[in-house]
């Protein structure tokens, strides 16, 4: 997931990531500050820090740390489900001037250890093969965890669908019985009315 978004100083911005359990998540970000005079975002925002907070589906805080204007954060999920990743600048400027616009570039990688190509080039061929094998194994494990998570979600959805279908069936039967009962009662009432009026 690679994206960028605008955020005000002191404003908190959160994204939601649906992550399987036991999965490594690595995030890289860079913050740029809007320059009123140049009418453009500066290449960097020196002196500005970002609080990064990660909350699990059970509301447990997995990460809460202050980083610089650009940095890398990582965490491991313990539960499968929606994880909330929040960012907020540590601007110390006065509230009147703290509304400056920031641009945040964010790249989140889920479920793998990434290759450092420069490090691989510095190793001999055997180490390179080992590194790539470890990378492939990690990717396979990630795909397996993703499939297991999708199977769990599919099972929950199937059970919900079956329960809903069962409820609809019983409701249809109940409606039919009610309509039949009302019909019989109406026929009996009309018959009793005609007999009382000696029309039959």
UniProtKB/TrEMBL annotation:
Q: How is this protein situated with respect to the membrane?
A: Single-pass type I membrane protein
Pfam families given in the database record:
EMP24_GP25L
- Please give the chief subcellular localization of this protein: endoplasmic reticulum
The coiled-coil segments of this chain are 119-146
Residue ranges crossing the lipid bilayer per the database entry: 168-187
- Asked if the record carries the keyword Transmembrane, the reply is yes
Q: Which UniProt keywords apply?
A: Coiled coil, Endoplasmic reticulum, Membrane, Signal, Transmembrane, Transmembrane helix
Q: Where in the cell is it found?
A: Endoplasmic reticulum membrane; Membrane
* InterPro entries noted in UniProt: Emp24-like (IPR015720), GOLD_dom (IPR009038)
Domain GOLD, first and last residues per copy: 12-110
GO CC, one annotated term? endoplasmic reticulum membrane
What family does the Swiss-Prot or TrEMBL record give for this protein? Answer: Belongs to the EMP24/GP25L family.
Record protein name field: TMD11 protein
**Species this chain originates from:** Sterrhoptilus dennistouni
- What lineage does the source organism belong to? Eukaryota, Metazoa, Chordata, Craniata, Vertebrata
């Amino acid at each position: 997931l690679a994206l960028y978004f605008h955020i005000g100083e002191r404003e908190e911005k959160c994204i939601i990531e649906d992550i399987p359990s036991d999965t490594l998540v690595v995030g890289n970000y860079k913050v740029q500050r809007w320059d009123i005079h140049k009418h453009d975002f500066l290449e960097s925002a020196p002196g500005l820090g970002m609080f990064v907070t990660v909350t699990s589906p059970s509301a447990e805080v997995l990460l809460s740390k202050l980083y610089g204007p650009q940095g890398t954060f990582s965490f491991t999920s313990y539960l499968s489900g929606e994880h909330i990743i929040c960012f907020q600048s540590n601007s110390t400027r006065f509230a009147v001037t703290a509304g400056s616009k920031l641009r945040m570039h964010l790249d989140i990688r889920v479920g793998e250890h990434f290759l450092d190509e420069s490090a691989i080039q510095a190793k001999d061929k055997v180490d390179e093969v080992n590194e790539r094998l470890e990378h492939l194994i990690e990717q396979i494990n990630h795909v397996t965890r993703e499939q297991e998570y999708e199977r769990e979600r599919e099972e929950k959805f199937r059970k919900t669908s079956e329960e809903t279908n069962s409820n609809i069936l019983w409701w249809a039967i109940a409606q039919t019985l009610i309509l039949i009962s009302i019909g019989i009662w109406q026929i009996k009432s009309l018959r009793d009315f005609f007999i009382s009026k000696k029309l039959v």
